[in-house]
Amino acid sequence: MAVFGIASENANDEISNFQMGRYVSTNEALWRLLSFQIHERYPTVVHLAVHLENGQRVYFTEANAAQRAERPPSTTLTSFFAMCEADPFAATLMYVEMPKYYTWNQSTKKFQRRKQGTPVPDWPQVFSTDALGRMYTVHPRNDECFICDCC
Fold it and tell me: Which among 17, 45, 116, 149 would be 20 to 30 A from 129, CA to CA?
């Protein structure tokens, strides 16, 4: 493939370099020819954490180690329990049903009610979507997590 153009000698055109060096497999080519969606996925799948109390993973640096040890960031599981205490509608849900009615805000580490979707009867300002909650798998030998009736 020959490419001709006018450019300075030291220019580094990352876009054209990527396009020239990109390999498109036969599977991807056929997928695109048949106009299937490549990047959009439906329905939305939200991964839900499973861990014991104070057993969540915590990532820290030297600068924030003391703060993270004293007060670890919320996970979807700890936020679920907080929502059950604060919101009467959330208390009626199972853990895997949370993404259907709530969105996970990654910056605040909290669930927030959905603002659009299908209205839920008898619950004003509550909307549902087709989002799915997917809990991480727990090995049966991990008795405490596997048998936990909270999940």
Answer: 149
Cβ proximity of 23 and 38 under 8 Å = no
Q: Which two tokens stand for residue 115?
A: 């603002």
CB 78 within 8 A of CB 56: yes
Is a pLDDT exceeding 60 seen at residue 151?
no
| Side-chain half-sphere CA neighbours of 18 within 13 A | 3
Alpha-carbon distance of 46 to 55, in angstroms, equals 20
Q: What is the domain partition of the chain in residue ranges?
A: 45-135
- End-to-end, the C-alpha distance of the chain in Å comes to 57
62, 78, 136, 148 from 55: Cα distances, Å: 21, 11, 14, 13
